[in-house]
Amino acid sequence: MALQRLNLSGGSYDARAVSVAAQRCLNLYGEPVPVEDGEPVRFAYYLTPGLRSIGTMSGAVRCLYQTTQGDLIVVADGQVSRMYRDGELTSIGTISPGSTPVRMSDNGTCLFIVDGNGGNGWYCSMPAAPGSSKSSTTTYSYTINSAVASGQNILTIQGNFTIESGYTYTVSADGIASGTTVIGVANAMSVTTSGDTASGSASITVQSSVTGVIGCMISGGGLASGTTIIGVAPNADDSSFTHITLSTGTTADTPENNVLSILSTPNPDSGYTLLTLSQATTAEIEAAASLSVTTSASTAYGKLTKMSDTAFYGSPTIDVLDTFFLFVNPDTSNWYVSPAQFADENQTPFDSLYVASDATSLSTIMGICVLGQFIWIFGRWQTELWYDSGASDFPFQRNAGVTVEAGCVSPYTIAKIPSLSALPNGGMMWLAQDRYGLPRVYLGQLQSAAPVSTFPVEGALQDMGDLSRAVASVYQQEGHVFYVLTIPGQSSSWVYDVSTGLWHERCSLDAAGNESQYRPYCWASAYGKIYAGDYENGLIYEVDLDEFTDNGMAIKRQRAFPHLLTNGLRGIHRRLTLDMQNGNGQSIGVDWSDDRGATFKTSQTLTLGATGNVWPTLWRLGMARDRVYRLTWTAPGETALMGVFLDLETVRS
């Protein structure tokens, strides 16, 4: 009997009843061959890319981000770094440590990072030109808290201030010598004198209750440099005032209501910082005078600064539209925006009135994303669309009458899709849920959305339980756009090929050879390459179709075929021949199920040719009424699967 081709098509489709479909597509993706090209093959299955380590950080890689200028920014644990084309990493700064995802965005001049925790946000200036390696400078303005006499090397500013290694902080103001830098900082508290104090006095009274400061330095108008506090006591006339005994007499008259600063370590959020300068002041500086601090970095990115603006609330996600940064107030029904062209909180402070609410579902807002000129506000059960109306009180307005009747399970699954023939204006995907059922994956475009997850994919996801920590990224390689959805702790990730509309699975192998969580946790494109970050060990990988291992670890690849029925009759399977591209002589395991996909028999081995026209074949495969064939291999080497040829003869029984 002549061989018949057993074609493959579609992706993973392991139905609720395996007797219906038991197809699995693991670490392989399908590509249809156009009928008009005249080829006999309708589908080819190619190897998903391997991973090659090109950089190492510490802890979980929480985000990879390509800036608008093309740089690759990496966050691992609490470290933020820039990666260059050659894999070199340069530190930008630090954020709160952890392993949960973070998200980044930029407006062309400022890079902003959020981690989902209330109040947490960090920003820094960006280089003036793409690929710049020149050092950067950023200038911040502060107000001097208390008067400083000439010849002092300490002063106190209003505001929190920290210094980090790798940066130089140059101070400028009237009375400060050129080139003066900050060489130390300490927390401080501000106090005000209650009366006039004559020059030479060793005591002073302030208008507040002060304790726990014995031994602390005190500075301000009329106090000698290095003066410390050697005693405190409530004032005899007013117990809410404090009588302070000084280590050194005052050097000039100190008038009533003069502001002094006490070096105080217990309260890091006091709102005042004492700066130690590299040079003494050259003239007296009045309280409330302006002071500038210029931060210089050895990299092209400025100092990474944590937000302290009270109108910033943190956010799990971030995006930008018309130079406005867009945020979600965690665990509330509110979202809010930065000023246009945000640069830093001193020059462009947040407006506490730039806040809006979920106007329709009134639920907690989970995330935010910009698609075209529309802002998608993802609630728990429903999604609203907004746009930039240019209004003066709040620049955005809801697109009335347009909602998507699905919300968001995890904000970290929201990912943009580039333009495709089927999506000429791009789109986005996310793990969604509505009031009527359990999670499924949606694809949105323009002002509408619909689920794209198949019944088996939805069944697999819904069997996983808590999906609130799910994370997803999108990357494009050789024309295929992949949405990679990972649920931490699960043994495989589900991947949707937006270009073909097909799903497949990806997994890694542990040291014992068992399927385990896919190593990549986040993805990005930069410098003409695809990168991925490891969920656990700080490795940054180049994602390469010509790499056939996961950084040296074997990759398991598997394709289970459709059910092969013989109209209720038994069939004699005389011969099976692989239709695969020959490569490196890989060993391919062939096994099959004769109980409708429930169990599989012992695997048989076929060997591909290294080169040439080799057709590996198995003979005398027994009889079955319903058979499911399956191919599995881990050997490295380039190949492609087109299907099998089968010699099958039905017999009456």
Keyword list:
653 residues; mainly beta; eight-stranded antiparallel sheet; seven-stranded antiparallel sheet; 1 helix; 56 strands; elongated
Condensed summary:
This protein has 653 residues and is mainly beta. The protein has one helix and 56 strands.
Task: Describe the 3D structure.
This protein is mostly beta strands and 653 residues long. It is 1% helix and 45% strand. It has 1 helix and 56 strands. It has an 8-stranded antiparallel sheet with strand order 17-25-15-16-24-18-23-20, with no helix packed on it. Strand 32 and strand 33 form a beta hairpin.
Span between termini: 19 Å
pLDDT averaged over residues: 91
**Any idea what the shape is?**
elongated
Rg calculated over all Cα atoms: 33 Å
Describe the secondary structure blueprint for this structure.
Blueprint: E1 4-7, E2 13-14, E3 22-23, E4 25-26, E5 28-32, E6 43-47, E7 50-56, E8 61-66, E9 72-76, E10 79-83, E11 89-94, E12 103-106, E13 110-114, E14 122-125, E15 136-144, E16 154-158, E17 167-172, E18 182-192, E19 203-206, E20 218-220, E21 229-234, E22 242-246, E23 259-263, E24 272-277, E25 290-297, E26 305-306, E27 318-321, E28 324-328, E29 334-337, E30 355-357, E31 365-371, E32 374-379, E33 383-388, E34 396-404, E35 415-417, E36 427-432, E37 440-445, E38 448-451, H1 455-462, E39 471-477, E40 480-486, E41 493-497, E42 502-506, E43 508-509, E44 515-516, E45 520-526, E46 529-534, E47 539-544, E48 557-560, E49 564-565, E50 570-580, E51 587-593, E52 604-607, E53 617-619, E54 623-624, E55 626-633, E56 640-651
Antiparallel strand pairs: 1-56, 2-3, 4-48, 5-6, 6-56, 7-47, 8-9, 9-10, 10-11, 12-13, 13-14, 14-26, 15-16, 15-25, 16-24, 17-25, 18-23, 18-24, 19-22, 20-23, 21-22, 27-28, 28-29, 29-30, 31-32, 32-33, 33-34, 35-36, 36-37, 37-38, 39-40, 40-41, 41-42, 43-44, 45-46, 46-47, 48-55, 49-55, 50-53, 50-54, ...
